[in-house]
Amino acid sequence: MIDKLKTILARADADYADLRYETKRETKISFNGPELTHVTVSTTDGYVLRILKGGGFSTLAFTREADAEKALRTALENARLIAKNSRQPVRLAAAEAIQDEFMPKLEEDPRKIGLDEKIELTKKYNALARSNPNIATTSIGYSETIREKHFASTEGAAVREDLVTLGISGLITSRDGNLIQNARVAVGGSSGFLVLRNREEEFEKKKKVVLDLLKAQPVPGGVHNVILNNSLAGVFTHEAFGHFSEADLIEDNPTMRQKMHLGAKLGKDILNIVDDPTKPGQLGFYKYDDEGVPGAAVPLLRNGVLCGRLHSRRTAAEFGEPVNGHCVAEDFSYAPIIRMGTIFITPGADEIEELFAKLGDGLYILDAKGGQTSGENFTFGAQYGYRVKNGKVSDMVRDINLTGNLYQTMQNITAIAEDFRLSETGGCGKGQTNIRSCHGAPHILVRNVVIGGK
Amino acid sequence: MEKLLTLAQAQEIQAEIYQLDTDLDIMTFENGRLKDISSSLQSGISLRLIKDRKIGFTYTRNLTDREELLRNGLVTLRAGAEAYFDFPRTGSRPELKTYDPAIESLTNTALAAECQRIHRILSGLTQAQVNLYAYKYVYRQRVLNTSGTDLQAKSSAYHMQAMLLLPGGSSGIRRGITGKSFLPASDELLNFLVELTNPAFRETRPQTGNMKVLFMPEAMYALTWRLKTGTSGKSVYQKESPIADKLEQKIFDEKLTVYDDPLNDQMPMATAFDSEGTPCRKLTIVDRGVLKNFYYDLEYAGRMKVPPTGHGNRSSAFGGDPITIKPNPALDYLYIAPGGHGFENLVKAMDRGIIVGGVLGAHSGNIPNGDFSIGLSPGLYVENGVIRGRVNEAMIAGNIYDLLKEIVAIEDTVYPTFSGTYPSILFDNVRVATRN
C-alpha cells in the first residue's frame, strides 16, 4: 500500500504532499434495557491527501481510488486559492522523514476474540447495571475501532501503525415517578481486550450512584468552593486549559494568542500540566501522529507558568516552536488537526483527607458529564456530587453544571492531591471525534466556582 | 447494488441498501485570512439484513467486495438482534426541488470572494474579529430493498455563517444563511450582527436571580434537544420520556407550535422519504401548546405497534457519518412557528434580562428529564430594553417542561440553524447564576 501511495504522490505538482490511507474496522454491540438491539461488524477505507503549493495548504478526503486524479487536481487548486488569499505563506516545520512500522502490543487482541464472547461480556455488564426495579433502562454498548494506517509523503516518510481502541460504556437511567436520573459508565482503553474483563465493580458502583440520585437534592446555584474528583479535574484540564494549548485554536485569535504566550503565569506554583501520548497502555497512546511525526511528551505548564504548546508541522513553523507530533485525525474522512493525546495535572503533595480539611464547607463533585469551551469560558457537567461540611462528605446533590473563566479558575486551584487517575474512554468533538482523547488528574481544590444549579 | 440484493434474496434474506455519495467543500476564514479549504469526495453503502425476525447491519465505503460485505452482514444477523419490522415497499414519491444545478458552477474562488466581501463590510462596522465559515454540498442518496423500494434523490446546499467575536476569545454573535445554492449575505443580516455585537464590548455584572431570557435561534438547540428526546418514539418505548402519557394535553404555553416538515423544499436537504424508504410528511409535535405526536422509525413503530412517521434517519445528536449510523427516530427538519413580534420589540420588552446568543454545555445535564444548566456563550445583559453589555461566567438553568410554559413572546421571523429553523423566544422567570 505504501508503494501505491508513493505512486499517487509522484503525480502531485506540489512543494510538499502527503497521503494517508486507512482501513477502519469497527464492531459495535448495543443493549437497550434487557435487549440486544444492534450489532455491526464493518470494514471501511479511504484516503486523505494534503498538498502544499506556493504557500497554500489544502486537504482532500476521498474514498474511491479512481478519484485520485481529481483529488490531486482539486487539492492543488484549493492550495493556490489559499495562497492567494493569505497574508503570509504556510510553511511546514522540518521533521525527520520516518520510515517505520509499529504495531501496539495488546493484552488480548480483540481480532482474535469471537463476536459471541464480546456480546456475552456486554450482556453481563448490562444485566448488572439493570438489576434493580428502579432502573428504568440502560443503554450499554461495546465499541471496537481498529485504524490500520498507512502514511507516505513526498519527503520520503513511510509510516505504518495500527490503533486499537476498545470500550464498554453507556448510560444507566433510574426513575421514581416523574423523576428521571442517569449516570454514565465506561471501561476501556487501547491496551487490548483484557482491560474490559473483570470490571463488574464499575457497573455496580454506577448503578448505586444512579439509584442514590433519585433521593438527591438539586444543587443550589451560585458560587461554591469545590473539590473535583479525578474524572472532573481531568475534564477541566482538557476543556478549560488544554484546548488553548492547541496552537490551531489560538493562532488567528490575537487576544488568546497574547494571553497564551510562553512564560505567562496562569496558575499557582503547585500547578503542573503535561500532555504525553507516548506511554503504552493508556488510552491516548500513539507512536506517530497523522503527519508521520513521533508523538512527544510536552510539558505545558510548569509551576503555573505556560512553557509549551501542542503543534502540527504548520503551526510549529508559524509559532517558531518545536514540532511535537500532536496532529491527529478521526479517520480517513478527515484532515489531521491538533489534538491533545493524554493531558493531565501532575500529582501534588496533599493527601485527599487534607484536601477536604482545606475545603471545610463546599461541594465534592464527581465524574464528568460532558464539557465545552468557548474562548476563555468553559462549561462542564458533573454526574453527581456531595455537600461537604467541616471537611466531611454529607448529602448527595444532583443537576450540577459548572462554568468559569479559564484564567480566573486556574488561579483558583489552591490545592492538589497526591492521587492520580487517567480516563479510560474518550470522545472529544473538536470538529471531528477523537475517541482516544485521554485526560487525568489528581483530586483538586478549586475556589469560587460558578454552579448553575436548577 | 442490485446484485447485492439478489445475493441476499438467494438465501431468502430481506435486504436493504442505503447508498450515499457526497461532494463537500468547506471554507474557513479567520480574522481576514482564508485559513483552510477542506474538500471531500465520499461514497458509502449501508446494508441491513432481516431473516427469521432477526436483523443485521454493516457498511462499507467501496463496494469492491460484495461477498465480504454480505459476509459481515450475515455475522451480525446471526448475532440475534430482534427485528420488529419488514422492509417496506414504497412506490414513487413526489419529486421535490432539492437540487439547484447552479451549485456545480459555484467555485471556491467565488466562495472566497464572498467571504472577503463580508469581511470587508463587517470590519468597517465593528472592531470585533470577524470569522466566517462557508460550505457547498451536493449529495445523492438511494434507498432500495428486496420489497421493491427504489428511491433516489439528489440535493444541494450552500451555507455561510458569520461570527463576530467578543473580547475574551471565540464566543461571539453569529448567524448563518442557508440555501440550495449560493445566496449573498444581505446588509440586513450583517447590520443585525453589528448592532448586537457593538454594545456587548462592555462587560456587565448582573446579580444572580430570576429574570427574562431571550433565546436566539442559534441557542435554541439546547431546548429543542430535550424536546426531541422527550417526543422520540424510542424514549417513549424505553419509558424515559416524562411526557409519554401527555398526548393531546396542553403541556406548554399556547403560543408554542412545533412541527417537523421534511417536504419543505424551500429549504435545502428536503426529502420525500426517510433513510429507510418510509414516506415523509409534515408532523405536528406541539400545536398551540398541546402535545400532538411522537415520532417513529420502523423499529420503534414496530415495537410500539404504531405506524412509522417517516423519521428513520441516520443521524445523531453529535453528528456522525450517516453510513455508519443505523436508522433511529430523529427530527431532522424541525420548525418552531413564528410569533408576531420583531426582534427589537422583544428586546424592548425586557425590563431586566439576558439575550442568549449561544450556549455551552447543551449536551450535559439530564436531557431525558428536560433539565438544562448551560453556560452563556455569549450572554448579553439587557436593562429597560437596552443592551448594557456582555455577561461573563454566567449560567442559566431550568427544565424545558417548566420553561416552555413561560413564553412571553415569539419573534415573527424564523432562521435556519443546524438543529432546526427557529425564531427567537422570550421567556420569563428564568434562573440566571452569575458571580454576583
What's the arrangement of secondary structure elements?
The complex is a heterodimer of chains A (454) and B (436).
Chain A: H1 2-9, E1 16-32, E2 35-53, E3 56-62, H2 68-84, E4 99-102, H3 115-130, E5 135-153, E6 158-176, E7 179-189, H4 200-212, E8 217-218, E9 222-228, H5 230-241, H6 247-250, H7 254-259, E10 273-275, E11 298-302, E12 305-306, H8 313-319, E13 327-328, E14 337-338, E15 342-345, H9 352-359, E16 362-374, E17 377-389, E18 392-398, E19 400-405, H10 406-411, E20 413-416, E21 421-422, E22 428-429, E23 433-434, E24 438-441, E25 444-451
Parallel strand pairs in A: 4-6, 8-18, 9-16, 15-24
Antiparallel strand pairs in A: 1-2, 1-5, 2-3, 5-6, 6-7, 9-25, 10-11, 10-15, 11-12, 13-14, 16-17, 17-18, 17-19, 19-25, 20-25, 21-24, 22-23
Chain B: H1 2-10, E1 14-30, E2 33-51, E3 54-60, H2 66-79, E4 81-82, H3 108-125, E5 129-145, E6 150-165, E7 172-179, H4 187-197, E8 203-204, E9 209-215, H5 221-230, H6 233-237, E10 258-260, E11 283-287, E12 290-291, H7 298-304, E13 312-313, E14 328-329, E15 334-336, H8 343-348, E16 352-356, E17 359-360, E18 371-376, E19 379-383, E20 386-391, E21 395-399, H9 400-403, E22 407-410, E23 415-416, E24 421-422, E25 425-433
Parallel strand pairs in B: 8-20, 9-16
Antiparallel strand pairs in B: 1-2, 1-5, 2-3, 3-4, 5-6, 6-7, 9-25, 10-11, 10-15, 11-12, 13-14, 16-19, 17-18, 18-21, 19-20, 21-25, 22-25, 23-24
